[in-house]
């Protein structure tokens, strides 16, 4: 079953603009992670935010987490053409057996030069 | 390069057949996960192994099975294949932690069932 839902499904912007993607989830979590996937290739881990954290930065990435609303956002600042990819949020659900991730359906980001 | 290897990269087979996908985790990672990615279902967790033992099951069909060997590599066996099994199959590995379980994904095996 799908835990996370990303919004929007697709986003097209110009180089230099900021891109914001949102993720909502349904159950309590240990952490929330964001991954990037370039067309049909493996997923690359971008950032992990723990359930007791509210904001985290990594380079041009900024992630926020609101556990009361069960939502997260990923902001990519000063986008580049190389940022074109699909972005997925994934949650590690609390009180589950194992440590698998439950992925959302992703946001497809297109950055044009 | 994530350090996770998967073979083969591509597999084309017929309905009713059986295939085996192989994964070698990153050095030091004891947990291995299998995921299936298809257009209609998205990324679905199939199964997790930890140090040779099954740890958790997700949406894995009874026709599918997996195991993790003493050298920690893992194999996913898919049998009685159907057209709907065509998908990208990913293996991932991580340290076992409920808080810091960043997962490292292999390049995937693209399975096409004709």
Question: What descriptors fit this protein?
Answer:
heterodimer; A: 113 residues; 5-stranded antiparallel sheet; B: 114 residues; mainly beta; 4-stranded antiparallel sheet
Q: Note the run of SSEs of chain B as H and E.
A: EEEEEEEEEEE
Uncertain spans of chain A: none
Report the average pLDDT across residues of chain A: 92
Decide which structural class fits the backbone of chain A: mainly beta
DSSP summary, beta strand count of chain A: 11
How many DSSP H or I helices of chain A? 0
Q: What does the average pLDDT of chain B come to? A: 94
Task: Tell me how many strands of chain B there are.
Answer: 11
Task: Estimate the helix proportion of chain B, in percent.
Answer: under 10%
Order of helices and strands of chain A: EEEEEEEEEEE
Please describe the biggest sheet of chain B, giving its number of strands, its sense, and whether it closes into a barrel.
7 strands, mixed
The end-to-end span of chain B amounts to 31 Å
Shape of chain A: globular
Rounded to the nearest angstrom, the radius of gyration of chain A is: 13 Å
What would your notes on this structure say?
The complex is a heterodimer of chains A (113) and B (114). Chain A has 113 residues and is mostly beta strands. Helices cover 0% and strands 57% of the residues of chain A. In chain A, strands 2, 4, 5, 9, 10 and 11 form a six-stranded mixed beta sheet that branches. Chain A has a five-stranded antiparallel beta sheet with strand order 1-3-8-7-6, with no helix packed on it. Chain B has 114 residues and is mostly beta strands. In chain B, strands 2, 4, 5, 6, 9, 10 and 11 form a seven-stranded mixed beta sheet that branches. The model of chain B has no long low-confidence stretch (mean pLDDT 94). The chains are: A mainly beta (113), B mainly beta (114). Chains A and B meet through strand 4, strand 5 and strand 10 of A and strand 4, strand 5, strand 9 and strand 10 of B.
């Amino acid at each position: 079953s799908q835990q996370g839902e990303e919004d929007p499904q697709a986003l097209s912007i110009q180089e230099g603009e900021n891109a914001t993607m949102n993720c909502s989830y349904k159950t309590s979590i240990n952490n929330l992670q964001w991954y990037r996937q370039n067309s049909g290739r493996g997923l690359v881990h971008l950032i992990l935010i723990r359930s007791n954290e509210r904001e985290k930065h990594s380079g041009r990435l900024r992630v926020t987490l609101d556990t009361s609303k069960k939502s997260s956002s990923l902001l990519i600042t000063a986008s580049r053409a190389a940022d074109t990819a699909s972005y997925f949020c994934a949650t590690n659900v609390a009180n589950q057996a194992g440590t698998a991730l439950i992925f959302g359906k992703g946001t497809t980001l297109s950055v044009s030069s | 390069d994530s350090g996770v290897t998967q073979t083969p990269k591509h597999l084309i087979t017929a309905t009713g057949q059986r295939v085996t996908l192989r994964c070698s985790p990153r050095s030091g990672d004891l947990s291995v996960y299998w995921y299936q990615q298809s257009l209609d279902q998205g990324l679905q967790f199939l199964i997790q192994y930890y140090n040779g033992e099954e740890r958790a099951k997700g949406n894995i069909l009874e026709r599918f099975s997996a195991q993790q060997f003493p050298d920690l590599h893992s194999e996913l066996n898919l049998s009685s294949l159907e057209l709907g099994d065509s998908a990208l199959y990913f293996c991932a590995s991580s340290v076992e932690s409920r808080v810091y379980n960043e997962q490292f994904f292999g390049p995937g095996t693209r399975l096409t069932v004709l």
